[in-house]
Amino acid sequence: MPVVHECPKGRAGPLNENESLSRELRLMLGKAREDISLASKIVDGGPYRVASSRAYYAAFYAMQAALLSMNITRSKHSGVISAFNLQFVKPGVFPPHFGALVSDLFRYRNIADYEFEHRIGEAEARSLIHAAEEIVAAITDYLVSKGLIDSSEDEGREH
Q1: CA diameter of the chain
Q2: In terms of Cα–Cα distance, which of 54, 67, 56 is closest to 104?
Q3: Cis before 47 (ω within 30)
Q4: Alpha helices, DSSP H only, in the chain?
Q5: φ, ψ of residue 54 in degrees (nearest 5)
Q6: 3-state secondary structure 52-63
Q7: How far apart are CA 73 and CA 66, in angstroms?
Q8: Which CATH number fits domain 17-145: 3.40.50.720, 1.20.120.330, 3.30.70.3090, 1.20.910.10?
Q9: For each of the chain's 159 residues, which pLDDT tens digit applies?
Q10: What's the distance, CA 45 to chain centroid?
């Protein structure tokens, strides 16, 4: 039996399972793009640790979207990262350096949010934002290529 969700505003009938998945993916990617935009604004004046943390979360939301496209969900950050590497990086869907990018983003997010002695500099923060942009763009392109989202849709995009 197909999963049916409530009808969004302005729609005549309920969403089917594919439409619901597509909508959820677009919302997740919209949140990822929003965090990249926020990180880019923050990095211009600091604090760099906050920009670094937002860059990580942008990549994290995109990885969650990629996993959801395969009906995989994980509740912990380490679980999302591990599953993403296993399902997408190891088989070559995304380039091998994505594993290192994700690892760096996660490590710096932990420094930003939980450590008090280590300072994140502007160059590090900008590098992390660039890494998040690369990951979010690649995952978006992947989901478009799979027909799960439409490339012309920009729900959640900043203008």
Answers
A1: 56
A2: 56
A3: yes
A4: 17-43, 48-68, 77-84, 97-114, 122-145
A5: -65, -35
A6: HHHHHHHHHHHH
A7: 10
A8: 1.20.120.330
A9: 444 344 444 444 455 678 899 999 999 999 999 999 999 999 999 899 999 999 999 999 999 999 999 999 999 999 999 999 999 999 999 999 999 999 999 999 999 999 999 999 999 999 999 999 999 999 999 999 999 999 865 444 443
A10: 24
* Tokens standing for residue 158: 């900043």
125-130, long-range: CB within 8 Å, 24+ apart, which pairs? 125/39, 125/43, 125/48, 125/49, 125/51, 125/52, 125/55, 126/43, 128/39, 128/51, 128/52, 128/55, 128/56, 128/104, 129/36, 129/39, 129/40, 129/43, 129/51, 129/55
Residue found under tokens 């990018």:
101
Provide the token pair at 82.
Answer: 């591990």
Nearest C-alpha neighbor of 32 from the set 62, 66, 52, 56: 62
CA geometry: angle 104, 108, 81, nearest 5 deg:
50
* Chain centre distance of CA 79: 14
Do 85 and 59 meet the contact criterion of CB atoms below 8 Å apart?
no
44 in Cβ contact with 64 (< 8 Å): no
